[in-house]
Amino acid sequence: MRSFLTATLLILTLAQPLVADVSGSRNVRLQTEWIEIQRDTLAQLTSGKGGLGKNLHAAVQPLIANKQAKMVHSSLVLARSGQRCTIQSAREIISPTEITGSGLSGSITQEDIKKFNRSLRAVRPHPLAFETRNVGCIVEMEPTLGEHHKIIDLYFDIRWIQMPSIYRWVTHKDQWGQADIKRPIFYTLRSRSALTLYNGHSQFVCSFNAMNAEGKADPARLLLLFVKASAQLLPNP
Fold first, then answer.
1. Where do the structural domains in the chain lie, given as residue ranges?
2. What residue range is the signal peptide (predicted)?
3. pTM
4. Which of 1, 127, 153, 194 has minimal Cβ neighbours within 10 Å of its Cβ?
């Protein structure tokens, strides 16, 4: 009887790591790619059948090698299935949204106006409220592994925010010189959606107009967004 119990405990001990490996936590490696390409070149690639998805990603790779296309940004993160992750490479830009009116310092009377009291100085408008914007790439994704890890459902919110220029919001000149208040101009690319992906395959998401030197949309150049999700099972400890 004792030998039977010992053998049973030994079998359970040996089987325990296998059970833990099957039911353990599952990670997913997530990758995004931004590829710049000419609009005419993209039209040629997508003119045939099956021009989207992983076929398009494979077709773009030789163009990158020949410098006919360019990888402008990419991100890579490891996340747990069923949980949302966020990564960002950005800087904070703080700009005013409300200002006071300009005026004169001190109390003003009719006698002051008559005498043109030189102690009265112009007071420039000053900000009352501000807003903060992140300039850079912000990626938010949530993967969910499907049955047998063959497919992966992916929710994503991907933003690329650029600040091409600053414009003069309020013009002001006082006794100390020019004292304008300026605000930034942002150029935002954003895609928020959900896709079902094959495990380990890159998928085309959408295209954006690239930004030109003046900070406006360039109709001749496009940015292609790709996502890729690959299941990563935890190994035995």
1. 25-97+109-233
2. 1-20
3. 0.76
4. 1
